[in-house]
Amino acid sequence: MTESQLNQKTKQSSFRAVELAELIDGSLKADPGLKINGFGGVFSADSKEMTYAESDKFLKIALARETGLILLTEELYQEGISAIIVDNPKLAYARLTSYFFDDRYYQPGIAESAILGRSFSAGKEVSIHHRVIIGENVTLGDRVRIAPGVIIADNCQIGDDVLLHPGVKIMAETVIGDRVEIQAGAVIGADGYGFVSDGEKHFKVPQLGQVIIEDDVEIGALTAIDRAANEETVIGQGTKIDNLVQVGHNVKVGRNNLIVAQTGIGGSTRLGDYVTLAGQAGIEDHLEISERATVTAKAKVSKDIKEAGFYSGIPAQEHREYLKEAANIRRIGKLKKEIADLKGELEKIKNYLREED
Question: Is the pTM of this model over 0.85?
Fold first, then answer.
């Protein structure tokens, strides 16, 4: 079973050190029976928890706190440390934390103050907290956790092991897969921005489609993903979206994308698999972005990206070309001075020739 296939039912609250080492194929340098009840950063983990260290500085902090188990590299290991040796401690830590039971908002039952619409149905161990509003014909899977203040509109389907943080708004017709986490204040399925003008007034184009969020997606706080004008806006499996991101109507996001804060994606754009959009990237509408393309911070994409690679600048271009152009721009001041100096020398020569005549 992969990490993405885990659900709340299969996760555990504690592990023996040998079990943790086996899960990541690490080399155990600790008592195999050592019981680990959780995890934390080097500044907070205690004797019953695990952490990771990527430098001598953080290893010393973890040791001073007598942390139960430390993930580190062979180079950092010292005799007597309770550790699992791995190539990439941070990656190993992230993988292992996914095996621990997640108790955030896990309180099976339905709060008295929750409002449930007609034809509502839910699976096993659902946690619905105070002041939740759920519309008509909504279906929840097993172990769904809905924090206070969430609103789910009519005709929505939500899969297993979904976590909705406080204040999330799920608008009508939205479909959410399994193991999806949506952070506080995000709005999924609001009307897309579609208007047509007659020269004097702007008329709204009805937004009649839906949003589909596939399995293992995470969506950051205050992000907005618009419903399609027609058909579907889709966020592909395994994609991770940061805070304050805008995804326009009819956008198709591929699998395992990384979309960073304050990025905006114009309507009907299609992103391939494994695309990365860095902070404040801007993508115009009706574009195609190749799989495994990376758009760097603050870049503006105004035409299709047809090949994998790094793209930067306004408008975005292949990163090496952007660097050359940026270097040339930085030379403009020096070139202006050189031209001014040459003009001065030419004037001196002209004056000399006049005097000779």
Answer: yes
